[in-house]
Amino acid sequence: MTELYFEESDIEGFVNRLESSDFEIEYVNRLMEHSWGQKVVRFYDLDGNLIEVGTPM
Question: Cys-Cys link to 50, which of 3, 25, 27, 38 (CB 3.0-4.6 A)?
Fold first, then answer.
């Protein structure tokens, strides 16, 4: 298994597109904000790889 990390400045827009897709999303965590201010969402892709998308630091 692999973890992939991406940065997205419009994280809310990304999450909206993700949730409106035709795919069933298995979340590790829905959109959350860390204590240092970075917002992230984590989920599995269709092959079981962990995907993390966060705002740029």
Answer: 3
Tell me the per-residue pLDDT of 1-57, one tens digit each, with 9 for 90 and over. 789 999 999 999 999 999 999 989 999 999 999 999 999 999 999 899 999 999 998
- Write down how long the chain is: 57
- Quote the Cα angle for 31-7-12, to 5°: 35
Domains along the chain with CATH numbers:
3-54 (3.10.180.10)
β partners of residue 50: 3, 44
